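Please review the protein record below. Tell me whether the encoded fold seems credible here:
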Amino acid sequence: MPRDTLIDYFDDLASAKGPFLVYDDGFRARSHSYVEVGRGARGFSSRLAVASVRKGDKVVFWSENRPEWIVAFWGCLLGGVIVVPIDYRASPEFLARIAKRVAARLILVGEDVPPPPEGLDIPVWRLHELEWRDGAPPAVAVGHDDVAEIIFTSGATGEPKGVVITHRNVLANIVPVEREVRKYRAWARPVFPLRFLNLLPLSHMFGQAMATFIPPMLPGIVVFMRGYNPADIITLIRRRRVSVVVCVPKILDVLRAHVLRASPDAALVPIKQPWPLRWWRYRQLHRLFGAKLWAFVVGAAPLDPELEEFWSARGFAVIQGYGLTETAPIVSVTHPFHIQAGSVGKAIAGVDVKIAPDGEILVRGENVTGGYFEAEAETAQAFEGGWFHTGDIGEIGPDGRLFIRGRKKEVIVTPEGLKVFPDDVERVVNEIPGVRDSAAVGASTTADTAGERVHIVLVLDPGVDPDAVVREANTRLEGHQKIRRALVWPQGGLPRTEGTGKLKRAAIREWLRTGAVSAAAPPVADKLAAMVAKYAGRGDLSPATTIDELGLSSLERVELMVALEDAFQTRLDEKAFAGARDVGQLRALVEEASKGEAEPEGLTFPAWNRSLAARVARRVALPGFILPLTRAFAWVHVDGRQHLAALQGPVIFASNHQSYMDTPVIMAALPRRWRYRLAPAMSKEFFAAHFFPEGHGLMLRLATSTAYYLAALLFNAFPLPQREAGARQTLRYMGELVDDGFSVLIFPEGHHTDTGEIDRFRPGVGMIASRLDVPVVPVRLEGVDRVLHRTWHMARPGHVRVTFGKPMQLAGADYEALATQVEDAVRSLPSTPGRPVDPQRKPQLSS
């Protein structure tokens, strides 16, 4: 296959068969095929041309991982437009600096980033609003030496370096890997499709490689998710039958802590055994992840050997890659079937690696960048005789395997794979009044935490509070640059070299490791403070201590949140937790959550009623006796069916609630294509004797369980908790129904009415429609209560009217207001003569 530019690769990708990208936001998943991605990319390229974004122009990407990122990426390349990706965790100020520096013509933003700064005077397009329509890309000539991307390092005040990546650079990585994959592709067909859960940011080149370059070679499926909660990650791996997890080492650390709590056999002492016996020894752990997970692909930061050993000893393959942005990005990678502990594998074909006399790893090849954006001096400094200086110390074994031994450069690499340049941190700190001098060095916060965090060693004027210095500095630093811990140097000035005056960072780091003592901290008096102190690496905390002052990364905040959930047996909202500003607010959030009911463990929903056998049973039962019996008593008149004619499912049907016959009446009114793809919600509390058998007699339990299973089988119904915890799990189940093409029928009032009046709609309908992002069809029932009143034991024949309204699209987080919109839409539908069109609304009650 010709591979002159990335466009050649795109042509194959866009014609591949099967699903490609899946985006799971925690409530539902959206899947897109290779063909759809190709169509969307061509359409986006056409839209760029209409907006006068031409070849050579720059487009800044600032977004979380999502399928639209990939579509826009390929759309830019098709038109010769240069992609400038920025980490979604970067600040708006950093975005503005880069956008101005490259003279960006357009900024693409995601849902999980703050608004761009005002005054940029650059158009902003929202990726989640991208239209997946085909189009004709502009006819432009794209060559292998044309620039594809410019990727910038994150600096607070120093000038970030932009790595210029061409089509040739990326292809030099793709082609050797593709050749190797072809050797094994036929053997892997029995386990296809391979699904990759990609937790690396797409702004990182290794994240791109494992999302849109390597998986299509199989072809594989790439899954993106929202958040880094380890329980959610494991649930998604099991539910989506993920084969490979792509992540930074810190994710493995977070998962290790979680499985040691969740799976008893994870703590068993490893024994040297063949892989099948290891798998059997830790079978409960493998069952937790699901049968298909077999490998972790780790990159972007050094992997602690002890962490690698933990997972490999438990029967998982740990595949390491080594590379840099400047090498587009892969230099070497461990072979999945020939893994050696501690090694990052052999150099890929076409890449030359050698070790300099001082131990530095030097790299040469077509994958290596030609230089930095508008930075000739930095480019000249990075290359010598055609060899790129990586700044890493390493050695090459007799068999050609590469081992990383440390860093030559003074850069700090966090466990998330983000680089922090000490000069950037020191420049900010030294501007703060009262600071005479400072040294930023990388160190672990505790003995059991892998990876480096930013520590600052200070020389201060008398009376200056080091914590106040940290608070002020962290307001100016990027998220990954934030200072974790500050210590005061005890011996006057910081140690520096004679003549040049350079900081002796090695000596400072050694003092930090062996002899540094923080200011005396008061004893930690309670469980929450102790846990925060553990993750912050310090105990001198007060309610006013800000989260910024703690310097926790986004992943460490998730770690702390999960630990607090376990300790206090509650469930915390990840967005609310991320918004806590200080320890006092954190405590209030935990205390408030602890007052409510925790998400119940083991809350299950029926999946068996969507099986082939259950669907066949409904196809027989509904037309055979359920609907004829319904129509014998309820003489149904239907209005508004025209609103369903052109509507593509799935949708949420939201109806007022009059009788136990409401569900069969609505099913009788629906066209066939909707009737058999419907999942009605039923009150879980109505089946209390089934779900909570304690305190109920045997006969009642049997009768209730029989009714529950018959409702689930014959109507495809599912339980909806009304007065207990479980909203997240219920919403997740509804998302699965929608993903499977089923529409959901709900009754937002939550109870039957007595005289046919419409009561207040609860906010849940707004949350469901907004989170699941599906249309709502308002439904009005009239007269069903006169056929079977909730207090009657036998139905009486009578006229019934069912009216379907126009579909509504709800968005936003004000669920009360959204529910009111649905309620008003139902009230406005025509009613049966003799009853008011819009009964007076009852006073609003707090839910």
User: Anything to note?
Assistant: The CA atoms of residues 215 and 221 lie 7 Å apart. The chain has five domains: 6-16+33-169, 170-392, 412-514, 527-595, 608-827. The chain is about 35% helix and 20% strand.
